[in-house]
């Protein structure tokens, strides 16, 4: 077997792996970056980028219809929407991404990587020895639910999130299992494109991880887009419809049935660690990789194995994985130079934000944007809620409907979390993130004057509601 030596071997060439590799190279190390699929990863070709490209035209059309004086009769051209999406993903061609990897001084390697020993990664007939570290950034994969009959369905009838973001024909009927982020976003996107969409969810409203007012607002938005909601239900059995002119699937649930031309499974994801050979270093394949705040994997001797992104199970979001990767790359480079690796909170080498300030946006209409904690936890924490009703929101759209919740540490008068729901509230999120990370006292925020007339004026209303 051919032998190769690099300072660092990074497994997984999505945005997380690319960032880890780039930071390590920037720190003076040699790096091999390995992936068996497309360089650029899930986010670039199957998740964040194509899903938002599918959602944006429908959300823009909904915004237009809220504005008097604008022609409301236009619709979406699915072919044009798909073409724009494909432009963002280069039609699945990752050659430009590979060129970038090489230009950054990183060696791209295609193939399935397995950890086969200490500081050793095997890719096909090649063995890569990492003088300093191996960094795992392989992301996550779909978690398939246990539903009777699912494994027997013809593959062409079942969509995962990858199919939902890359399909180029609108199904007449689409059933979606799961009311989380992927389920709600894709239900709305395909309804806006003209599909008859049925969303089955186990809870009373979509987005169960968010405050109830956010889920209720998104439910209203889904209904406005034409999505039929089935709350508090579970798919009990699925089967192919006999005698259908075209392939169709029947979903039995709660004494009723839904027939659809495609069934989208959106019931969650799990870390992609099953085929990494983790058993060779005493870890359980398929489980999240436990890491400390420097990204070092726990339970592996020698201090050489690191992980970042979805594989850690910490905060399965692209931007948070990239944040972790930048820190891990810097930590590995610092350790290789013999420099101090800092372990104190909020230092340049610790992923402190994983615990305190994880931002996330659900790109439905209305949008949901959240950072930090979403519910108060006992004495010393107070929830402050109010409608987003300022001059900026009234000008933004007729009948603008939005709401926010702030969680305040009343002992220190600092924000611990913010949740917004409403059209275009994602643009309010980074201000909240800065306030939380910076632990800006609310009396100081009083002097951060919001421009008039913008939706950001709601910050002033929030401080007034709190009592300042």
Automatic annotation (TrEMBL):
Biological process according to GO: 2-oxoglutarate metabolic process
All copies of domain Pyridine nucleotide-disulphide oxidoreductase dimerisation, residue ranges: 358-459
The UniProt record lists the keyword Nucleotide-binding: yes
All copies of domain FAD/NAD(P)-binding, residue ranges: 6-323
Cofactor(s) in the UniProt record: FAD
Molecular function GO terms recorded: dihydrolipoyl dehydrogenase (NADH) activity; flavin adenine dinucleotide binding
EC identifiers of the protein: 1.8.1.4
Protein name, entry field: Dihydrolipoamide dehydrogenase
